[in-house]
Design goal:
Helices cover 38% and strands 21% of the residues. It is an alpha/beta fold.
Length: 104
C-alpha cells in the first residue's frame, strides 16, 4: 500500500465553523484548521486536498430536524463531489443557508 499514490484526500467535518456559537467554539477551531490545512496542502503540488463541512445527518426516517441531510441526499452529494473532481478545496453542504440558520 505504501507504493500506491493517492489521487486525493477528503476530510469531513461539520458546519460548526460557519455557524459558530459558544457551545461549539473548540470544534469550530479544529474544523477551521482542517479547512485551512486543505488549502495549504493544495499549494504543495501533490494530490488534491478537499475539506467538506457537512450539516447534520438524519439516517433514519425518525422525524428528525428539518436541517438534517438524509442518507439518500448525502449519497447524492458525495457522488457529485467526486464528479466535480474536487477542484474546490472547501465545500459547505447544508439543507438551509448559514444565514437562515443563524437567524433561527
Amino acid at each position: 500500500m505504501r507504493e500506491r499514490r493517492l489521487d486525493f484526500y477528503l476530510m469531513n467535518a461539520t458546519v460548526a465553523p460557519v455557524l459558530g456559537g459558544e457551545a461549539v467554539v473548540v470544534e469550530a477551531a479544529a474544523e477551521t484548521h482542517l479547512d485551512l490545512y486543505a488549502g495549504w496542502q493544495n499549494q504543495t503540488g501533490g494530490p488534491r486536498w478537499t475539506s467538506v463541512d457537512w450539516d447534520g445527518f438524519r439516517l433514519a426516517d425518525d422525524g428528525g430536524p428539518s436541517t438534517a441531510i438524509t442518507a439518500g441526499e448525502g449519497t447524492q452529494v458525495f457522488a457529485r463531489l467526486l464528479e466535480a473532481g474536487l477542484e474546490i478545496y472547501e465545500w459547505l453542504i447544508a439543507v438551509h443557508s448559514p444565514a437562515r440558520r443563524r437567524r433561527a
